[in-house]
Amino acid sequence: MVVSCWREDSCTVLRVVGDLDAAGAPRLRAELDHALALAYPLHVVLDLTEVPFCDSVGLGVLVAGLNQVQRRHGRMILVLDPGMISHLLTITNLDRHFETSASMDDARTALGAAA
């Protein structure tokens, strides 16, 4: 798994490539924790469009990240393609908790409109 992180206007973007499973989840957790420690305002876009698989460990990292962001009154948007992760969020009812977007541009627009 490869995780890239950068600041863009008033948000932090993390782009994940590879499986979000027991092997890759610790990498994302470390990058997300580091990004959240430095981010202000706390607006995070997590691009998961190149993540073909997510298991319960990966889902746990996403939930923990969302909880951290919400505790600090921030906002997290997951950028998702239709597929495995979207389906996983739906069947676990987590789609009611996560804000999602179909593209990076849509996520940027959503965060810009809220600013």
Number of strand elements = 5
Summed up, the helix count is 4
SS content category:
alpha/beta
Q: Distance between the terminal alpha carbons, to the nearest Å?
A: 32 Å
Strand order of the largest sheet: 1-2-3-4-5
Q: Over the alpha carbons, how many angstroms does the gyration radius reach?
A: 13 Å
H/E element string?
A: EEHEHEHEH
Helix content: 40-55%
Shape designation: globular
Low-confidence stretches: none
How much strand?
Answer: 25-35%
Q: Largest beta sheet, briefly? A: 5 strands, mixed
Q: Quick check: average pLDDT?
A: 92
Summarize the entry for a quick read.
With 115 residues, the chain is of the alpha/beta class. Helix content is 43%, strand content 26%. Strands 1-2-3-4-5 form a five-stranded mixed β-sheet.
Task: Give a description of the structure.
The chain has 115 residues and is of the alpha/beta class. Helices cover 43% and strands 26% of the residues. It contains 4 helices and 5 strands. It has helices at 25-38, 56-71, 84-91, 104-114, and strands spanning 2-8, 11-17, 43-50, 75-79, 99-101. The protein has a 5-stranded mixed sheet with strand order 1-2-3-4-5. Helix 1 (25-38) packs parallel to helix 2. The longest helix is centred in the middle third of the chain and has 16 residues, at 56-71. The model has no long low-confidence stretch (mean pLDDT 92).
